[in-house]
Amino acid sequence: MKKLFLAVMGLLLCCGGYAQEKAVNKNGFTINGTVKDYNGKVYLTDEVKGQYIRVDSTEAVNGVYSFSGGNVDWPRMMHIELEGVSGMGSFILENGEINIRSNDTAFFYHSTRAHNTLNNEVFNKYRIDEEYYTVTTHRAEVMIEMLRYPEKMEDAEYQSQQFQRRSREGTQISRQLRMTIVETYPDEVISLIMLRTLAPKLSADSLEMYLGTIDDKFDEHPYTKELQTVLNAKYADIVGATAPNFTATDSNGKTVELKELRGDYVLLDFWATWCAPCRREIPILKQLNSTYGKKGLKIVGISLDEDEAKWRSTIEAQKMNWIHICDSFAWNGEIAVNYNVQAVPKTVLVDPEGKIVAIDVRGEKLVELIKSLLD
Known about the structure:
- By secondary structure, the chain is an alpha+beta fold.
- It is 42% helix and 23% strand.
- It contains 13 helices and 15 strands.
- The chain has helices at 2-13, 18-21, 108-111, 118-148, 156-184, 189-198, 204-213, 222-236, 276-280, 282-292, 308-317, 334-338, 363-374, and strands spanning 29-35, 40-48, 51-60, 64-69, 76-82, 89-93, 96-102, 112-115, 247-249, 255-257, 265-271, 297-303, 323-326, 346-350, 356-359.
- Helix 4 packs antiparallel against helix 5 (156-184) and helix 5 runs antiparallel to helix 6 (189-198).
- The protein is globular, with a radius of gyration of 25 Å.
């Protein structure tokens, strides 16, 4: 695996010479796009807190389209959408002439490649290398196994184990490719883009270290601020830390502020109606609310549902009679980000002074913990 990682780094580093050869047009951007066998609407789509917003549109005629605009202050990830075609083609919006080619609308994301600017060339090379190491080499390995060990092709357990192994290796390789880009291009926005994808799995110390290597010119970039928020959440997501304050509107239209609940223990329950393990916790929460709701425990349910109607009908049908908040930005919502929510259910127990005393304690263990604190 180490030899493979060294080869990966070598492939990415070969893009380095491109930086000296390409001059950046600081007067704005031009996108020249081609789509094989397509005529129709083309959308330029931005991403804000995980939600996609169409910011411009044009028509592709005989498979050709274009966009142009003024100076790009903060280069960032953008997307191309086609009307009636599933998926989006991703590229990096930056100053200069960007050429985008899409060879197959049936596989629009995978067939779309952007060229002619540094960040897009590095991003394109990353995608090619990732596909080679995680798809092509694994296909070759499967074919070799079929020839060498045909009897094992019918062994479902063996095949499952091999699939899981290849999946783990693919994840490791993809991670190494992205880390190499962060280390190689600290003065380009591609480093921030890759660091955003790595951040959820990095420790607080590692994320802080990588953030410290990014060029100072990106200090005010929205991606840097987003990563700083993630970093703060990682440091806050430990027992003994002060629980991040938040203000939100509850299901009854009232304003809820965490610091105003001090004096009681507060159980923050991150959940969603579509989450089966979350729903299995509802009887426990109802029991806690009934027993300790007047003895110093406040429960605040924080839903990551995007369907507000379903959220409301669920809390009413289940008679979940405690404070409820729903953030339509879901995983990208301010509260979820500040509490480093990577999966649901997640619980955070805050003491009367606003300190975190327990994280991810659920079921009977949660009942015993609350009992020990309030009985």
